[in-house]
Design goal:
6% of the residues lie in helices and 25% in strands. It starts with 47 loop residues before the first helix and ends with a strand. It is mainly beta.
Amino acid sequence: MQTCEKGLEGMSFDFSNLNKWEALLLDPLSEPTIEMSASWVQPMIITKDAFELRVPLGSRTTYFQGAELDTFADYGRDDGMTARLRKDGEIREAFSNRG
């Protein structure tokens, strides 16, 4: 093990030298390699269409105190609207990908 009395200045970052680094998760009979345990969660599968949609079912409404935000998927509306904010009777709209 190394001491870090001088901070990182005197540290050796040769990870293959086990005299300077403590072996964690290493197989002592082979080359120093890190073995990671298998993941306990299932892989997440997202279709390309769902990923590009980015908004469940094409639109989402979020309510704030005194405001309402509608978010729409890109290319999900014919007019290109991607967001609409309603606050105190005022409506602001955001558009993108308009030709």
